[in-house]
Amino acid sequence: MENKRKNKDFNPNNCPVTHFYNKVGGKWKTVILYGISKNVNRFGILQKAIPMISKQMLVNQLRELEEDGIIERKIYVEIPPRVEYTLTEYGESFMPILYTIQDWGINDMRLQH
Q1: What does the pLDDT average to over 81-90?
Q2: CB-neighbour burial class of residue 3 (10 A; exposed 0-12, middle 13-18, buried 19+)
Q3: What are the residues facing 73 on neighbouring strands?
Q4: What is the dihedral of CA 5, 65, 73, 43, to 10 degrees?
Q5: Fewest beta carbons less than 10 Å away: which of 11, 42, 59, 103?
Q6: 1 band by pLDDT with thresholds 50, 70 and 90
Q7: Cα(64)–Cα(66) distance, rounded to whole angstroms?
Q8: Which contacts qualify for 91-94: CB closer than 8 Å, 24 or more apart?
Q9: What pLDDT digit, counting tens, does each position of 31-70 carry?
Q10: Distance in angstroms (rounded) separating the CA atoms of residues 19 and 84
């Protein structure tokens, strides 16, 4: 069964913020991208790094990120097979935004404590 995203192309007002969220919005994609950027780049390692995400949700999010050209999956032909995810050049273009979000979060958490 093919996974159909409800909001992938929904942007009736041609809003750039909506466009961004259609690519990497939601609870998990930015966390996954950040992990992959820090070499948390294998399925099992991602699952351990994000223990609240279900296996199926992680699979779906990785597939969507790959489908959108944000990450790529490399399969190593060895026993047992190994799969690693890396950011594409397009995926790398999201990182300045994520680092800005990270900086905001660090500052805000300091203020909360």
Answers
A1: 96
A2: exposed
A3: 85
A4: -90
A5: 103
A6: very low
A7: 5
A8: 91/33, 91/36, 91/65, 94/23, 94/24, 94/30, 94/33, 94/70
A9: 999 999 999 999 999 999 999 999 999 999 999 999 999 9
A10: 27
